[in-house]
Write a structure and sequence with these properties.
By secondary structure, this protein is α/β, with parallel strands linked by helices. It has a single domain, classed as Metallo-dependent phosphatases (Purple Acid Phosphatase, chain A, domain 2, 4-Layer Sandwich), CATH 3.60.21. The chain is 21% helix and 21% strand. The protein contains seven helices and 14 strands. The strands form three sheets. A six-stranded mixed beta sheet has the order 1-14-13-2-3-4, with no helix packed on it. Strands 5-6-9-10-12-11 form a six-stranded mixed beta sheet, with helices on one face. A two-stranded antiparallel sheet has the order 7-8.
Length: 333
Amino acid sequence: MRRMEENQTLSRREAIAAFGAGALGVSAAVLASPRPARAAATRALDAGASRSGPLRLIHMTDTHVQPERKAYDGLLACINHAASQKPDLIITGGDLIMDSFEATEKRTTEQWDLFTRAWKSAGYTGDVRHTLGNHDIWGWNKKKSQTRGDEARWGKQWALDNLHMDRAWHAFDKGAWHFVVLDSVQPDGDTGYIGRLQDEQFEWLTADLAANRTKPTCIVSHISILTATPLIDMKDKPREGWKVSGGVVMTDMARIIKLFGENPQVKLALSGHMHRNERIDYRGVSYICDGAVSGNWWKGAHYECTEGYGLLDLHDDGAFTHTYTNYGWKAEA
């Protein structure tokens, strides 16, 4: 996320303030990151459960690379730090570049060049999979991006080409686990977007989960399927002013959560977008929003959440541990 977050051109903070408690409609325990340095959340394990070596996953979201504020150096430092954890898999969580939603072709080229160069310079050769965020989509705001909408790389195509992806949602297996990467950002009006799945994608997800019932499953999306982070900022708002913003949470969460309930192999749902760290355990699924690699868009900590990434060890029986991990970055003054 950054500044333009909704079809009604709400700012990020306005969008957060617009999110209401009534949108959740559930009782859920939220673990916000209690310390800037490091916070861990661990799933309870069944006594006596058999174990093999865990699959190590890095969830690296909201890198927002740009020419300014040493963002390239920060991204490179994060990749190198993550590589030192010896992961089996890295999944990026979207908003890989600062913004192409409102950016010109020249500015978008500059940002993707930095993103590609950082990964090449790091020399990391392990398995990396990508998720698209709203800021990775080129030109949906035609006026500000100076686009027509008929350019070959307009919309999601530029990001897909750079990331060597056929489409924005996909699934794969790694170790004992099944992973599903969703495309959570859809157009809404002429200048905005909304968090949801297209019907075609939802039907594909339904079939994919049905075909993989025996494998513990991790879902990854940029926009959270279920999040309470916006509520933190609602304490001084009159209740009658609370309302849902379709730019900060999946608006079709009800059908997705129902689908997960029909597929108990779904254990984990990872997201970014909010630049904050939380965990909600609901109906057998842990919804974890990891903080941003860029923190406050390379200006330091975003509220209580410093620059970092998610470090997870996934066990064959579906249990896992999660630690929000800082990589030692000091923002430019």
